[in-house]
Amino acid sequence: MTCMKLTGSDFDQRNMNHREGDLSSRNTGVLAFGVDDATNKELEYYGVIMDIIELKFDGDEDFSLVMFDCHWFHPTKGVRQLNRFGLVEVAPASINPANEPFAIASQVSLVYYLPYACTSVASLVDWQVAYKVPPLGSLDTPTD
Q1: Is the overall model pTM greater than 0.70, yes or no?
Q2: For 6-77, where are the alpha helices, taking DSSP H only?
Q3: Under 8 Å between Cβ of 31 and 132
Q4: 78 near 94, Cβ under 8 Å?
Q5: Is there a contact between 116 and 16 (Cβ–Cβ < 8 Å)?
């Protein structure tokens, strides 16, 4: 499976969008939340979908489970929170040392990674901004 529409978002696997010269607006980023066992602190796990797997179960009622096989960025060394600007940056070359690539599709959110246009600033070259994409048909509106 190469594409999955779920909770108002279109998820695609990486090799479908990262072809040389592909200027499409689609992206493969995902965000999942977890807890660091050592500190008991909630972490944001950013990654890209490498493959979409659908498990189908037969029985009295048909049931399927969609999972994403992801490349997860390092949750601390590969993620920078820029609270002053409300931005999150990720280092796509970083690798999460935990060998847990799978996520249940309904437990992740869609993220779009934007590379910095300024390539002459060394501190920005290896980083991209992670934009949390709201589901189709919904907009975040201020409450005050």
Answers
A1: yes
A2: none
A3: yes
A4: yes
A5: no
Q: Residues, the chain, total?
A: 144
Cα angle value 26/56/48 (rounded, 5°): 25
Q: Could you tell me which residues come within 8 angstroms of residue 3 by beta carbon, excluding any fewer than 6 positions away?
A: 10, 11, 12, 13, 16, 52
Q: How many CB atoms lie under 10 A from the CB of residue 136?
A: 11
Q: What is the CA radius of gyration of the chain?
A: 16
For 5-46, the pLDDT digits (tens) are 555 555 554 543 444 444 444 557 999 999 888 899 899 999
Contacts of 129 (CB under 8 A, 6+ apart): 87, 88, 89, 113, 114, 116
| Residue 125: its H or E element | helix 122-125
Q: What single letter denotes the amino acid at residue 16?
A: M
